[in-house]
Amino acid sequence: MAKGTMRYWAAAKAAAGTHEEPYEAGTLAEAVADAKARRGEEFARVVRRSSFLIDGDPVGSRPHESVPLPEGGVVEVLPPFAGG
């Protein structure tokens, strides 16, 4: 298990009620599941549509179960947004 920080942006931040929080998880899927378990359906809906960066690198379409989290890493949760 790695410890790090999850940062939420835009609608994810509003749904989470915080800008960032610590994670303790082995994979991105575990960290996201833990965060969703502590919040309501609105947060889960936003996260389902979000993209993710880990230490600045995009996760893309990789299955979240296959994405290991680094010790001290930063997971950015980026919901879809309009504009340029």
List the helices and strands and how they pair.
Blueprint lengths: L1 E7 L1 H7 L3 E6 L2 H10 L3 H8 L2 E4 L2 E2 L15 E5 L6
Parallel strand pairs: 1-5
Antiparallel strand pairs: 1-2, 3-4, 3-5
Give me a quick take on this structure.
By secondary structure, this protein is of the alpha+beta class. The chain is built from three helices and five strands, in the order βαβααβββ.
Describe this structure in words.
- This protein has one domain (2-78): Beta-grasp domain (Ubiquitin-like (UB roll), Roll).
- The protein is globular.
- The mean pLDDT is 95.
- The protein is built from three helices and five strands.
- The chain has helices spanning 10-16, 28-37, 41-48, and strands spanning 2-8, 20-25, 51-54, 57-58, 74-78.
- With 84 residues, the protein is an alpha+beta fold.
- It starts with a strand and ends in a 6-residue tail after the last strand.
- Strands 2-1-5-3-4 form a five-stranded mixed sheet.
- Helix 1 packs antiparallel against helix 3.
What is the number of beta strands?
Answer: 5
What's the gyration radius in Å?
12 Å
CATH superfamily membership: Beta-grasp domain
Mean pLDDT: 95
- Which percent band covers the strand fraction? 25-35%
Give the class from helix and strand content and strand pairing: alpha+beta
Spatial gap, N to C terminus = 37 Å
What top-tier CATH class fits best? Answer: Alpha Beta
As for the CATH topology, it is: Ubiquitin-like (UB roll)
Domain module tally: 1
Show unreliable segments: none
Order of secondary-structure elements: EHEHHEEE
CATH architecture label: Roll
Into which percent range does the helicity of residues fall? Answer: 25-40%
